[in-house]
Amino acid sequence: MEIRNRFKSALEEAVNNDELMCKPDEKEALIEEFIFLQWAVNIGYPQILNYPHDTHINQAETNVNVPLTLEHPLLKATIRMTNSYPWKEPITHHTLEKLEQEMIRLGFK
Question: By C-alpha distance, which of 38, 59, 34 is closest to 49?
């Protein structure tokens, strides 16, 4: 529940700072919808990742321990889904590259 609360707080802050744009009476519903959608994708992540999206991928390469590239269909679909919301600045490939480099620097990837 702690992760959910932190995620919700970050989304509320994004709305309050006009980074995620919505009408005041839509705020709670939009945040709940966004959290639900991200949760659904993350719950399905292991099943989707273990299902080869290309026929040439062998079983050894399709498991949850293999890092995703920025070009992986699951990551691209998540970004497209996230960018479908009214963000002031949608996520770009350049932003993801910077984030990936920072994660590598911190030892998370």
Answer: 59
